[in-house]
Amino acid sequence: MLTVAVLISGTGSNLRALLDAAADADYPARIIVVGADREAEGFAHAEEYGIPTFLVPWREYDSREDWGAELAAQLEVWRPDLIVLSGLMRLLPPAVVEAWSPRIINTHPAYLPEFPGAHAVRDAIAAGAVQTGASVIVVDDGVDTGPIVAQERVPILPGDDEHSLHDRIKPVERRLLIDVVRRIAAGELDLAAAAASVSPSS
Ligand code: GRF
User: Fold this and answer.
1) How far is it, in rounded angstroms, from Cα 133 to Cα 178?
2) Is 108 a catalytic residue?
3) d(CA 183, CA 161)
4) From the CA of 44, how far away is ligand 1's center (Å)?
5) Which residues are paired to 59 by β-bridges?
6) pLDDT tier at 198, thresholds 50, 70, 90
7) CA distance 57 to 17
8) d(Cα 45, Cα 37) in Å, to the nearest integer?
9) Looking at residues 43-48, what average pLDDT do you find?
10) Which fold has domain 2-190?
11) Omega before 158 cis (within 30°)?
């Protein structure tokens, strides 16, 4: 059974979908802990499932490195096989990435390498794009630059705003995330091999 730590900042709807999937006895991964950089709404999903949570409040640390050191200490307590960044709105410091790579994956609401960064959905609309997408990547030291392990297109419809478009992207993100975690757990997706290969889109 693959053990997973999920890190969030927000509502945790993607976390919720992964928790629901992992509740199926046939799903080969279990979420063992949920962490956040703030009092995230999404903690409620973990609590509902009786899954432990930890908080490393971003605002209480002087630097990304100090925050990351405490995050790493928390992760070290749980020693998950995989870390999923699911809406964590902070860049992990290089020391944390180095310690856990390639066992950190991130979901992103765009078809990377298009529209990296924190405002991917807004940026796609502002660019006048007719399609965007969802991606799951292996985290590296860059901003959404790691090897892509799954992605799918989502059309941008006339009249879409950031909210409506994000609402259509999220179900795709969830499906990709659940499938990627399943494939990792089943040995069908080797993150080390993915991390060593050149991203198909670069
Ligand atoms: C997702 O679209 C994620 O990719 C982005 O923030 C969103 C998180 O949503 N970075 P939620 O907290 O899972 O509802």
Assistant:
1) 16
2) yes
3) 33
4) 15
5) none
6) low
7) 24
8) 16
9) 97
10) Rossmann fold (3.40.50)
11) no
Residue 201 has pLDDT above 50, yes or no: no
Alpha helix positions (H), the chain: 13-22, 43-48, 64-78, 94-100, 120-126, 162-185, 191-196
pLDDT in tens, 69-83: 999 999 999 999 999
**Domain spans of the chain?**
2-190
Is the pTM here over 0.90, yes or no? yes
Q: Hey, what amino acid is at 46?
A: A
Q: Which atom of ligand 1 is nearest to the CA of 89?
A: 10
Residue with tokens 């909210």: 163
Ligand 1 closest atom vs CA 42: 12
In this structure, how many other beta carbons lie within 10 angstroms of the beta carbon of residue 8?
28
- Average pLDDT of the chain, as a whole number: 95
Token readout for 122 is 């807004």
The order of strands in the sheet holding 53-55 is 53-55, 29-36, 2-8, 82-85, 104-108, 131-138, 148-155
